[in-house]
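Q: Got a minute? One more chain.
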Amino acid sequence: MTIGVLGAGSWGTAVAALAAAKNDTLLWARRPEVSDSINREHVNPSYISDFPLPESLVASSDIHKVAGNCEVLIIGVPSHGFRSILEIAAGSIPESVPILSLTKGIEAGTLMRMTEVVADVLPNHPRDHIGVLSGPNLAKEIMAGQPAATVIALPDLNLAEEVQTRFMTPTFRVYTNPDVVGCEIAGACKNVMAIASGMVSGLGFGDNTRAALITRALAELVRLGIAVGGNPLTFGGLAGVGDLVATCYSSQSRNYTVGHGLGEGKALDDIIAEMNMVAEGVKSTAGVLALADKAKVEMPIAVEVGRVLYEGADPESSMMALMGRTAKSEGHGIF
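A: Always. Here it is, folded:
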């Protein structure tokens, strides 16, 4: 099987490297110098450059070559560029090829999840062939060969199982799940919550504070996920609590890094300028809040993250605002 990956960022590159272990794999890089380096030197000079890539991995800056010659298409570009990249590639994508999104975000304006964007751009593509790959997957640890697990969510279970076998390795365990909606909402929300977790750490608060925040963050993403059609059980799995914990605790997380800087008193523009990667939560927080408002779901942590990001609110004041909310019962835990 030939796997095509659009997007040579850190996670797109890592997924391409995983795929190349068992499949012919093509990786699209926007810049020719990046694809040339991958082909000649077997390293991505812009992302995860400390890790050698499989010699069998072939890179190209020709998006039509990659999209048009694959049996599974993986899309790993930021949410703000997802639609435009897909529109460019659309005419070359084979009919009925499974399409998996790696992007954990919400499209600004439309409030679409990435699989909805795929269905919008490719209206004739079978809906049960459009899904996601999502889980607690930090690219550097994957590249280092550390044991990890992920979820492939596709409505067509037989197809999901076929793709599953193409990514399983001795150190990368893959599960299937038909709940595309739940996996995508969890992925988008956990980026927002990772910013909050980073702020808590940057403010100097300890593990009690962060554990409380992550637990209540899980309650928020579960409420929103169920409201828009996700399966409650998804949020207790790898794409839910698994990804949330990894992103909220790891300094490798871009969104955690943004939050940590904000907690230390740095300006958002300065933090972003220092990073070489996109932190999806910075843009997606607005979309998550809009979805929550539309679904009439209460998400107080996300609201405070939005206030810090977009209104210049002080992170410590936002934390105290959460602590000062009206007392209530925990009810049925996260549900």
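A: The mean pLDDT is 95.
Q: Perfect, thanks.
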